[in-house]
Amino acid sequence: MFSAEDTASILVAALPYIQKYAGKTVVIKYGGNAMISEELKKKVMEDIALMKYVGISPVIVHGGGPDITGMLKKVGKASEFVGGLRVTDQETVEIAEMVLSGKVNSSIVSDLNLKGTPAIGLNGKDAFLLKARKKLAEVHESGRVEKVDIGYVGEVEAVNEKILQDMIDTGYVPVIAPIGMGGEGESYNINADTAAARVAGALRAEKLLLLTDVEGIYRDFGDKSSFISSLSRREAEEYIDSGIIAGGMIPKVEACITALTMGTGKTSIIDGRKPHSLLLELFTPEGIGTEIVK
Amino acid sequence: MFSAEDTASILVAALPYIQKYAGKTVVIKYGGNAMISEELKKKVMEDIALMKYVGISPVIVHGGGPDITGMLKKVGKASEFVGGLRVTDQETVEIAEMVLSGKVNSSIVSDLNLKGTPAIGLNGKDAFLLKARKKLAEVHESGRVEKVDIGYVGEVEAVNEKILQDMIDTGYVPVIAPIGMGGEGESYNINADTAAARVAGALRAEKLLLLTDVEGIYRDFGDKSSFISSLSRREAEEYIDSGIIAGGMIPKVEACITALTMGTGKTSIIDGRKPHSLLLELFTPEGIGTEIVK
Amino acid sequence: MFSAEDTASILVAALPYIQKYAGKTVVIKYGGNAMISEELKKKVMEDIALMKYVGISPVIVHGGGPDITGMLKKVGKASEFVGGLRVTDQETVEIAEMVLSGKVNSSIVSDLNLKGTPAIGLNGKDAFLLKARKKLAEVHESGRVEKVDIGYVGEVEAVNEKILQDMIDTGYVPVIAPIGMGGEGESYNINADTAAARVAGALRAEKLLLLTDVEGIYRDFGDKSSFISSLSRREAEEYIDSGIIAGGMIPKVEACITALTMGTGKTSIIDGRKPHSLLLELFTPEGIGTEIVK
Amino acid sequence: MFSAEDTASILVAALPYIQKYAGKTVVIKYGGNAMISEELKKKVMEDIALMKYVGISPVIVHGGGPDITGMLKKVGKASEFVGGLRVTDQETVEIAEMVLSGKVNSSIVSDLNLKGTPAIGLNGKDAFLLKARKKLAEVHESGRVEKVDIGYVGEVEAVNEKILQDMIDTGYVPVIAPIGMGGEGESYNINADTAAARVAGALRAEKLLLLTDVEGIYRDFGDKSSFISSLSRREAEEYIDSGIIAGGMIPKVEACITALTMGTGKTSIIDGRKPHSLLLELFTPEGIGTEIVK
Amino acid sequence: MFSAEDTASILVAALPYIQKYAGKTVVIKYGGNAMISEELKKKVMEDIALMKYVGISPVIVHGGGPDITGMLKKVGKASEFVGGLRVTDQETVEIAEMVLSGKVNSSIVSDLNLKGTPAIGLNGKDAFLLKARKKLAEVHESGRVEKVDIGYVGEVEAVNEKILQDMIDTGYVPVIAPIGMGGEGESYNINADTAAARVAGALRAEKLLLLTDVEGIYRDFGDKSSFISSLSRREAEEYIDSGIIAGGMIPKVEACITALTMGTGKTSIIDGRKPHSLLLELFTPEGIGTEIVK
Amino acid sequence: MFSAEDTASILVAALPYIQKYAGKTVVIKYGGNAMISEELKKKVMEDIALMKYVGISPVIVHGGGPDITGMLKKVGKASEFVGGLRVTDQETVEIAEMVLSGKVNSSIVSDLNLKGTPAIGLNGKDAFLLKARKKLAEVHESGRVEKVDIGYVGEVEAVNEKILQDMIDTGYVPVIAPIGMGGEGESYNINADTAAARVAGALRAEKLLLLTDVEGIYRDFGDKSSFISSLSRREAEEYIDSGIIAGGMIPKVEACITALTMGTGKTSIIDGRKPHSLLLELFTPEGIGTEIVK
User: Whole-angstrom Cα distance, residue A86 to residue A63?
Assistant: First the structure.
């Protein structure tokens, strides 16, 4: 199939990376198309299994938007959005928690276990994993920014990394649903990119990988040759200020910056639509996607 | 409040029991009124926290019937019963799993963590904790017993006690939702008493405590003086055969027998309606409820 | 006997204390009536056995005055006292050592072992446990204080806590006779309260308990309502200066102050005439006796 | 002083023995002249200190006859003997215990500690070290052997070798007074040779050394050239039967046989009147005294 | 260079093999062209470094014929051969040892250390690694086989695998010169294939790789399509008997059989002339060369 | 042979020294007559075996001049000397390495192993043990000192003490040939005294022993009574400056100073011609030879 020489070249190139990541923690934000397409989902699970197999400790943080919307519709609950965030009353957050923990999370855990990779589902309440507080939405109105209470939407206050480390040390792959727990035990819906960034920071992970539905960052989105394969944190901040990085890419890049600031080694925004994108990013010299580093 | 002598007597009596259970595993089936009344729920959580505090390793298996029924009603799903068991199609088991894992379990975990007892919610899919297979309902019709497929109702095939032991060893209280996982990753609804019995057996727990809504077993239900405080496994089997133990008590006693057969030290059916019933059963010479032993 | 509610209340109150002392060292000065009455002695041994049982590491330091006096009489040796201390020549200290080590100590060790609590008798010569030097008596004569050499009466110079810690770590209860060893190997008679205080300090014990023949400290000895249940070290010192604490209570309070200064957590002067006074002091919120704390 | 060649020869010869005993347990019965002469006592202590120094774990069992007799006389207690054994009433055994534990033992412990060798005094009550039962005296009267109750004279029923091993493992030299403890906590006077043999057997010691006041065993006591330097257990038994071994030597040889039977490696009866007899026996190829081996 | 898909395919295929060999021992017989060509030597060293890098424990056994011949010529020593083996007098074996240990071995060790792979050179005398005895040459003369003494040519009697395991456990790559040590300390020249086989057997290595100058075994040497990629031990024996395996291949196949018999997992005869043949054999599903298995 | 008293005296004197060195590392420079005379060699090996036996960790660094000269002669290579150092071209250093590693070292290793002392031969290339660089010869010509390149003569740049410590920890005696490895893998001939000093320094050895062919240092070489048994480092430096220490003794004393500066406890220059000089130096109070200390 492949010539012996080609195979040898790829192995000689990959082996140092395999060794480099052995025993290290890699946090993966799993979402988008890679979660919707059954074909891609299968390959992501295969990649995670192989990562675990060669000694990496993967930690998964997943999203779950479409399923929540579906369930809300099923129980006849209309959704209202303010400043891009869903208004989340008590009933909504309860349904979000049920769907994220009791369905999406469960399904990923189940797939990994079927592949022989022992996984455990967690949400932010388990051993106070994600301590959270209310996050107000920002509404830009008549030139002013106003903060609006939209209910049980939260932000991470603290991560109990001990529980994750205990799981990793005893050989399990933690799969985390982004539900936070407030000081009174109340639930909060948390953005999955941010949750992944905070988890990567708390674990001082070797790498944070955000699976997205784009190839990475372009200097000029229309010009394929302007692809940026590596950025420093400082450059990333400048590109946001100057508008090179814009729209939905901003929160993802900010998540990377947060993770780096808290001690994560490297971060990458990669194309989850490409099969085996995780392996290619980790084990080839050129990687794929856009890397943001210190 | 209490005389020094009374206090001393109770302590002298309790200390040997406290020592006896130190470092031991006690599995608690949590359900019934003790789960519905907020007052009782608070005391059960307090008891579990104190048990953990004095060195016992509690493991919780909970039920959740009323909440599932509530949610099914909400999404407009009618329930059908065959042979006393709910017919459980794909949508029903999905909702059961969401409610059990994403709501009931989550809420117990949250309460324990607020009390400073680090708890982790699990269901049968986590690290293949409860491997399950389909269980057919038995329908007695015209003198014959017929087996009927009622969907995703399951029975435990195997328990992965390693994951529980790992949790216990790293200091967490496992809280288990009785959802089983089939060989293809499909979910099964499992009876919580049976699940607790299998977990207690797999862990070779020191004790299995079933919280119920009755005081225990009577030789003659109408005569309070006929209360049975201790039964051997063999006697329990005879009492079922002779009809002394009947109705809803049968599956609970069978769960105790299963646990004993698999290596659990002792089992007790106790009255969850009594405040602090867990502490009284464990730390007083007379205990409460009916004990079934080898 | 007791209502379930009362029992539950006492347990709920006691469990945190039981946990608090688990793994901690508690030094007990054993003397007075609790040593003379066979009835009380039995209960003290029971308490020590239960303490060990629930994970506390008790260390006993005992007195032995009456037995020494008895033996001196037997061999026809008259006792002379100067400044409240017995003049102790070579023959006297030899007899004191034989009685304390070879009789009183032996008898406590024997009782504990019969209760299944592995105890080991020690005196200050074992592994140089209590390094001692001569202590002069203070005689108040015509307004002056004169120091008088009364022979082999000593004070502790240093405690070899390693030997005690080794005993504790290997699971034994050390029972210590207050005989000190001088630099030439000579024996000294040491006051048992002081020896206990020094041992508690050297071990940085959680608690020092002095069993006495009084209820504790009163602000006004004639007025039972003036009982003091807790005192700070500073207050204790003031009360000695102001004469509220007087007579035989002074050396006991000074022993507590010494222990606190050297790192003991808390100290208590308790009534050894009350049955199970050790358990009541340790495992009830109100305790008994007078506590002196930092 | 010595030529380099002589020194080298002695070292080359001794080093393998030093290595051979490193980490091994050697039980020494200490008694007789080596205990009475201050000069010899000093050298025995020096030898024990050096043994400990080069990695041997010595365990001392001592006698104490003359001191007990002295004390009994002091309190005006007459001694009666039946079948060679002292009739030992309650008062006598109490005085024996005080003298052995509180004086003789204390003095050995003190001497070793002054030499920098951490020693701990024990008697049979410490952690139930020597469990004992009554031993009847045998009286030969008109051709018959009658068993006579002579009070608190005992024989060893069981040795708690764990406490000795714990002491050894934590670096202490156990010094044992031969007082046994009966099932009710009562004290028994035990023969020191036998106690040493049982201790050596229980510890499966490498060697048992009995310090005596003779050079060893002679085939013909009058003929110095008939000295026996090594005997097998079987030969020793034959020599007792045939009368070659007689009188006071019999119980010593029987102690050796007991120790060998229970698992001690080798035993030696050596001349405690010779300075440094312990070192010469252990570290020279020829040894001194008579060795009895399996 | 390579497409992402090709790279992903090769990695997905290789990762399980990388994991499979992690922590395992692989013994490599290094000789032939791969030792003579500087280009190939560099690649072999690179492969060994990568193997160590991903967690394999390589053990090298090397030959060295040409260098020995060179040195013998230099000192003017003529070589005589009997039955295919060099007649090896005292001077010859001394020179062989100097060349193998002091030159060839040294050079491999030096190359690996320069690559950052900590290697240690050994010969059979180090900690008695290769205990050897004289091996007689077999001379076929007039139909009879005669055994002839040709001096210091030896065969392995025993391997001290402990020293190798100690090296491996402390992280070093052992590099072994095939010099054996006789019972009197005399040196023997040992065949390197056999030495490698015995080492692989003693270590119960996962794999033995023999680097040769052929592609592997052919059923019919002239027909390239008759290449045998896998053989059972039994088949290998039959092929030798039937002459399919012949000539210089026989001792190599016999070495494989010896290693398998002693507990080596698998063996392979591979083409050392192919670059990176070690990596290709280990980390690709098809491997290269001929594998001989149980 | 010796009187018991003499034997006891020597043992009493030696035991503290034996204990003092137990578990310590002693580096021995082995060379001179003790290496040439078979009789002395046997005794040195016996001493090293005994040292290891009583718990010392010996490390040997050996020389090998005569054998190298012999081999150079054999291959017809003439030697040229500049500034007292042999001009060492590529061929010369190759032969030196073969002789030192493949013959002299091998023979010492073999002798120790035959005595039951597990030894391993090393040279500076093993795990980069002796990192070396070129050392220029100093030629004194017409009042000036000129530095001359004489080829592969080196000096130690760094010692990898980890490999030695690993050997020691796993129970082996390292035997080191003084060949250093340069940054490109090239070999250097290193002076054995200096190599031993650097090894002793890197290991922070308890003692460095240099075996020489003289009795030690004399204040006045002609006057036997002027023998110096102990010198401080400072005195040693002054004696070199003042010419009391001169000639071939200078590099040896300088080696001692180097070792002391780097953390070796003590150093001794001893007479290798005296049988058992190692034992006499270590285990007698007076030692032999001249000690140089901090």
Answer: 14
Rg of chain D, C-alpha, whole Å: 19
pLDDT digits (tens, 9 = 90+) for F211-253: 999 999 999 888 989 999 999 999 999 999 999 999 889 999 9
Q: What is the pLDDT of residue F149?
A: 94
Residues of A in contact with B187 (CB under 8 A): 106
> If you ran DSSP here, which 8-state letter would residue C32 be given?
T
Rounded Cα distance between F93 and E107, Å, is: 13
Positive or negative, the CA dihedral A42, A46, A49, A51 is: negative
Average pLDDT of chain E is 93
Q: How far apart are CA D18 and CA D20, in angstroms?
A: 5
Tell me which residue of C262, C52, C280 sits closest to C159, measured CA to CA. C262
* Rounded to 5°, angle at Cα C31 from D164 and C76: 90
Are residues E106 and F101, on separate chains, in Cβ contact within 8 Å? yes
Chain D residues with CB-CB distance to C under 8 A? 71, 74-75, 94, 97-103, 106-107, 109-111, 113-114, 118-123, 125-128, 163, 166, 169-172, 179, 181, 184-185, 187
Distance CA C43, CA C58 (A): 15
Tokens of C117: 């609590």
Say whether C81 sits in a helix, a strand or coil. Answer: strand
Residue B250 pLDDT grade (very low, low, confident, very high; cuts 50, 70, 90): very high
Looking at the complex, report in whole angstroms how far the Cα of residue B260 sits from the nearest Cα belonging to chain A: 29
Across the interface, do C46 and B276 touch by the CB < 8 Å criterion? no
Q: Residue E214 in contact with residue E76, Cβ under 8 Å?
A: no
Instruction: Give strand pairing partners of B228.
Output: B217
Cα F125 to Cα F184: distance, rounded to the nearest angstrom = 11
Q: What is the pLDDT of residue C8?
A: 87
Amino acid identity of residue E96, one-letter, is A
Of all residues in chain A, the one with the smallest CA distance to E275 is A5
Pick the residue of D120, D169, D172, D188 with the most C CBs within 10 A to test the interface with C by mutation.
D120
Predicted model pTM: 0.81
Give me the torsion for CA of D2, D6, D8, D10, rounded to 10°: -100
Q: Please report all neighbours of E, defined by 3+ CB atom pairs within 8 A.
A: A, F
Distance of alpha carbon E275 from the chain centroid: 17
Strand partners, B291: B230, B268
Distance separating alpha carbons of residues D238 and D242, to the nearest angstrom: 6
- Reading the block at residue B184, the tokens are 């293809």
Least confident of A95-104, C113-122, E133-142: E133-142
The one-character DSSP state at D78 is: P
Distance, in angstroms, between B266 CA and closest chain C CA? 22
Which residues of chain B are at the A interface, by a Cβ-Cβ cutoff of 8 Å? 74-75, 94, 97-103, 106-107, 109-111, 113-114, 118-123, 125-128, 163, 166, 169-172, 179, 181, 184-185, 187
CB-based burial label for C39 (10 Å; 0-12, 13-18, 19+) = exposed
pLDDT confidence of residue A112: 96
Distance CA D161, CA D181 (A): 15
Half-sphere exposure of A292 (CA within 13 A, CB side): 31
Q: Which residues of C touch D103 (CB under 8 A)?
A: 94, 97-98, 102
* Neighbors of chain F with 3 or more C-beta pairs under 8 Å: D, E
* Rounded Cα distance, F65 and A274, in Å: 68
Rounded to whole angstroms, the Cα distance separating C240 from C257 reads 11
Chains E and F touch (3+ CB pairs under 8 A): yes
| Burial class of F106 by CB neighbour count within 10 A (0 to 12, 13 to 18, 19+) | buried
Q: What are the backbone angles phi and psi of residue B23, rounded to the nearest 5°?
A: 80, 0
CA E151 to chain centre: 23
Integer Cα distance of F57 and A112 in angstroms: 52
